[in-house]
Amino acid sequence: MRILLVRVAADTRYMQAMYKVVRMEPLSLEYLGAAVRPHHDVKLFDMRLEGGWDELRRTIEKWNPQVVGTGGDTCESRACKRVLSLAKAHDRRILTVMGGIHATTMTEDCLHPDIDVVCVNEGVFAFRSLVERFEKGEGFEEIPGLALNRDGVQHRTAPRPLAELDTLPFPDRSLTADVRNKYGFSLWGKHLALMRYTQGCVGRCDFCPSWSLSGGRYLRRTVDSMLAELQAIQEPYIYFVCEESLLDTKLSLALAEAIRKQGLGKRFGMPLRADTVVKKPQVIEAWAAAGLEDTIVGIEQAEDDQLQDRDKTTSVKDNIAALKILKANHVNCTGSMFFRPDFTQDQFDRLVEHTIELQVDCPQYFVLTPIPGTKLYDKSRDSLVEHDFDLWDFNHCVLPTRMPLTKFYDAYMTAYATHLQPFVVEFYKRKLAQMTAEETDEEMDGLMGFREVFGTLHEDHKEYAGPQA
Ligand code: B12
Ligand code: SF4
Fold first, then answer.
1. 119 shares its domain with 196
2. pTM value?
3. Which residue lies with its CA nearest to atom 5 of ligand 2?
């Protein structure tokens, strides 16, 4: 069968700006490709790099796929639907499939006349069975983990148990061979590959869907499987798509040691909880020796009571101690912080001040968003003020603000003045020194593009006007 997998690009200004600097390989689609190859002919089309809607339409017309699959975040869900509508407009016999985080946590929103099948959670084995049965002309009711859209009604099949990570095939990176040199993660690293190492988290934060998606479990791969995949990756920089990479001390030490011994010369980035860093400084040390260069740490808030409000079990004390350990090991910390929509100017100022006290190498700010599949969504669904999923990108307010909208977004943009702090400038210098002149120009252009969008975020709201000044 001819199968077209599409990495969507949302049309919104924020996401378009993001794709210029944050453009990671479509790992989920590479997994799906591996699931059905070599028995089927698979093409992966990355809309961020290979052209927009017209080019996608031409590709569909020219290649005439029998199956089209796509997926994305909530803020990309409208674009996903449009991809599948384009496929159906070409030929209604094409089997259209949507998966990924939005399809998993808002399955009912994917009841759409141009979507045949919705894949809930892990997709590798579901997609393989789907394609096999479609080829034979058989029904899909027996395949666990799906929602089948028929005549305006959605039927759920049995739930699918999570796959152990070592049972998954390695992602098929040859599907992106032509564009791989364009993948990167802003300042962190160009020529960057993604790799799945663990899945799940011990945290139960109310704004995060990840822990419930893994059924509260922490899944991990073996050292042998990790090494085998690592050796096949050409890129020098690898980012682990975990929720929290180093929870398993014994495994983490063994993997770091094996990587160091192999002398692969790779650099690594991974997300870590502050309390993991604090409890396991020896693991950080071992990973720094193995090439760990960057982490993302959810600092989130400046006060313990605000962290507790979000069921975050790390504390301000953990955050302070974690930053010290990371700095001692020369590991850069990208700290993720969020502004609550109901923040006052003083609360904005306090969080920014805290970022400076902590000396977060690369501060990243977001707007607290009650994303589907979270406890926060359940708590706040009656207070939503913005229902257009295009704006659910963690940068627009979808809950009521206390400040007028323009003031809120002014304060939001002003927070990024932290990037002029000497310790952030040092981070920029370290990272830009690893780039070619051309990459530096592209990166700086991209970052300036973000600035323009950030200055006018309020203009994107059609539904919510905010309180009067
Ligand atoms: C790594 C990661 C990133 C990376 C890379 C992201 C990327 N898309 O390129 C970085 C750090 C850059 C990032 C950025 C962002 N992220 Co992010 N990210 C993650 C994380 C931790 C892991 C995702 C991952 O790669 N998993 C591994 C792959 C293999 O699994 P998968 O994508 O789930 O795919 C499997 C199944 O879903 C399914 N599947 C997926 N697609 C399809 C399609 C079909 C047809 C089928 C059948 C099946 C299927 O099969 C796949 C294989 O099993 C998740 C947390 C999570 N638990 O998902 C958050 C997460 C997805 N990110 C999130 C968000 C909000 C963002 C940002 C919008 C934040 C921002 N404003 O900057 C950006 C947007 C990036 C973008 N879309 O371009 C949210 C999304 C919530 C939502 N409902 O929208 C999550 C869930 C984090 C959270 N806890 O809230 N992210
Ligand atoms: S610590 Fe991070 S990954 Fe874990 S539940 Fe909280 S937000 Fe999610």
1. no
2. 0.97
3. 203
